[in-house]
Each structure stands twice: as C-alpha cells, then as structure tokens.
Amino acid sequence: MATTSLTTGNGSLMRIIPVSLRFAGYPTKELLNRVHRASAITHRHARSQMACGFFTLVIRDLLNDQNAPDAFANGLSAFRSFYEPDPWWAAQLDYFQLLLAGDLAKRPESEIDSSGYVLHTLGASLWCLLTTDSFEQCVLKAVNLGGDTDTTGCVAGGLAGVRYGLKSIPEKWIRSLARRAEIESLFNRFADLILSSK
Question: Which of 45, 147, 159, 193 might form a disulfide with 129, Cβ 3.0–4.6 angstroms?
C-alpha cells in the first residue's frame, strides 16, 4: 500500500499540461501515448498515467471551445473508449468511480478530497472547474479546499486557464508573480512553439 501511495502521487498531473497542449491535435492514441510517457518519467503507475490521460482529454475539448460540462462529458466518453477495452488499464477503473459516475458537478464539497493522491487532485480540480464560472472562482475554490492546495490550485488553474483564456487571470495576480519576466518569456516561447507546430 505504501508503495502504491508513493507512485500514485499528483506530481506528473501537476506538470502534464504543456504536453496536453502541445499534442492536443494528435489522434487520441498518439496523444495519450505522449502523455503516458511524460507521466512515467516520475509516476509510472497506471493510475497516474490514466489521470493525466483524463485531464488531457478534457483539455482537448476545452481547446475546441467546449464549455466545462461538455468538455467533461466528452472527455469521460473518450476516456472510457480508450481505457476500458484494454485489461491492463481497465484493472484501474474502479479507482475512477467518482469521475466515471458522470455526476461530479452535483457532488457536495464533503465528497471532494484534495490530498496528494493523484485521483483526489484530478477529481477536486475538475469539480472546481464544473462548479464555478470564472478563472478566479475556480482557483480560489481549489485552494480553499485545503489539503494539497498548491497542486490542486495548479491543476484547476490549468483547466480554468484553457477554459477562460489568459485575459481572465486577475491582473493583480500577474503583477505579484515572482520572476514575472522570466515566466512570461517561457510562456511566449511555448505559445510560439505550439502555433508553429500547427
């Protein structure tokens, strides 16, 4: 059990969004292969790879201008289609029941965990996206859940950033960033890379 808990942490989920964005236009099999390989660098457990896959499938639909409920529903459908037929992946599906039930937005906060466990982080981040109407609301809700606040805020912020766009981030938050110029330079270079690959 201890080994599983160490290998199903949320570290790869927290850093997967650049991969999700870079390869979002690829066919599902190749997209998820890229995501799985990136996760496996530090978090090789099937559950961690699948969590990154679920997140990426939702990101893909958000990039296609889907609203949050539709992106979640479409991501869930694609997740099932890819992972259910393969017994190796399917062995982990019982752990995804909170998401597979399809009613995440209706769940009360008391059913949402925000720990360092990858499925807690994924569920909490998606729940925050589905139960708020702006970037600021989503991130604040994620952080206020407590637990592993920085990672849940990061993952929820990634989802909300794709959903609402760069201009939705409060200017006061951007002004207070440490090393802001360096972060903006990295962001712009990455954006240029994505645009040039289309």
Answer: 159
Domains held by the chain: number: 2
Chain center to CA of 50: 11
Ordered DSSP codes for 37-66? HHHHTT--SHHHHHHHHHHHHHHHHHHTT-
Distance of alpha carbon 67 from alpha carbon 45, whole angstroms: 30
Q: What is the CATH number of the domain that holds 18?
A: 1.10.4080.10
- The residue whose two tokens read 């958000």 is 62
State both tokens at 52. 């990154």
Q: Is 65 left (phi over 0), alpha (psi -120 to 50) or beta?
A: left
Residue 185 CB-density burial (10 A; 0-12 exposed, 13-18 middle, 19+ buried)? exposed
Structural domain that includes position 178: 172-198
Indicate if 148 and 92 belong to the same structural domain: yes
Residue whose structure tokens are 């849940």: 152
Q: Distance between CA 123 and CA 44 in Å, rounded? A: 19
pTM over 0.85: yes
Show the beta-strand stretches assigned E in the chain.
none
Q: What is the pLDDT of residues 25-78, one digit of tens each?
A: 999 999 999 999 999 999 999 999 999 999 999 999 999 999 999 999 999 999
